[in-house]
Amino acid sequence: MFTAALLMLAPLAAMASPIARTDATSQRIVLKSNTKQCVTAYGLAPQAGDILAIAPCEEPANQYYLHQFFLTEGIDSTAPVQLASTNLCIDAGSDAPSEYTSLTLQECNGSKQQSWYWFGASELEINSKFLARSCRESWLTRHSIS
């Protein structure tokens, strides 16, 4: 079910402070190079510390995420990306992670490493210069409204 590919980080620059989530809608995050592959939390009961992976887009809850601006066009802002129905957020590991750092789920805490930039063009980044990617797939920049 899961590919061996893990999500990794490219080099980062300074990041804006996270903003509060007010009205989020659950969506999938898919690979730009293959819209049938989704960012997936391992298992049906994900927990803090789990590493994210790429897996075929299906219907399990572990492929749906919340971000305040997913359905808002023209918004340039940051907010956490939270696994739906949990208090777990996609985490980059530190304010300045090194290249090829695995993305994990951690308890949502509003930190900079959990603040993801949505610029209203179906793309999701952290830190405005950062792109999540996997070892075997292209840049993970596209957010899909499934």
UniProtKB/TrEMBL annotation:
Pfam families: Ricin_B_lectin
Keywords per UniProt: Signal
Domain of life: Eukaryota
Signal peptide: 1-16
Key word Plastid present: no
Residue ranges occupied by any Ricin B lectin domain in the UniProt entry: 32-121
Record protein name field: Ricin B lectin domain-containing protein
Source organism (scientific name): Kockovaella imperatae
